[in-house]
What we know:
Elements: E1 3-4, H1 18-27, E2 32-35, H2 44-52, E3 59-70, E4 73-80, H3 87-113, H4 119-127, H5 134-143, H6 150-158, H7 173-182, E5 186-189, H8 199-211, E6 216-220, H9 226-238, E7 242-245
Parallel strand pairs: 1-2, 2-3, 5-6, 6-7
Antiparallel strand pairs: 3-4, 4-5
Helix pairs in contact: 4-5, 5-6
Amino acid sequence: MKIDLHSHTHYSDGHLSPKELIDRAHNMQVNVLAITDHDTVNGIQEAMDYQSGQKRPMQILPGVEISTSWHNFDIHILGLNVDHTNPEFLARLDQQSKERDRRAQQMSDKLAKVGIDNMFEQAKTLAGKGQITRAHFARVLVERRVVKDFEDVFKKYLGKGKKAHVKPQWIDIAEAITWIQDAGGKAVIAHPGHYDMTTKWLKRLVEEFADAGGDGMEVIHSHLTPERKKLLADIAAEHNLQASSGSDFHYPNRWTELGKNLSLPEQLVPIWHDWELAI
């Protein structure tokens, strides 16, 4: 059974609509797919409504990827199997949306000071109904040929310490865990192998997350070496965290694919072990 618990649509920084994402997941023979857009669940009902009309053996799980701040790092916490209609949860996520708009406007103002105008308006248009993200700024800058590619965007403008960087004011990890669990979901550290930190800091992050009541850790995700996978599995086991796996799929490319190479180590308890999956 293929289970992929980390994916994005155009409601955040993904390129596909919920329908297109589901169709692709089906073609990749995914059985269970969690949609986890950044700080929003706005695409979930659309996805579930579409899937309910399909004669396909695939289940959609409502999820979200919440942005948090921890010791000057931006850490993402997945909320899996949440109640995406919970009014309190929706109000809380709206706080994150407002912070995204504030940050985006400040980035736009900084870019204007170096001669790059109208960025907020263009990035917001590109985001459409979705959350505005740095990826939207990057796409506009590439399309306008200000820079050649995404890597160049962050090296010159949006990365830490660069001309248009704005430090976000996210909630802390403990608050994100509370939000998720109050909405009936499980809180999971997203892509721990991707954070630019030493192993010592990574272990500290996981320890503090576990002490705050977190449920699990994404021990399998894209672009991990076998050694890194073993390290993550060992850290999760040390803190009795359940294991999750996800592609973190944003758009079709040769490096990341839905449902690909996501098998969990057998010694770990899957995050879905006590969910009633329909598959």
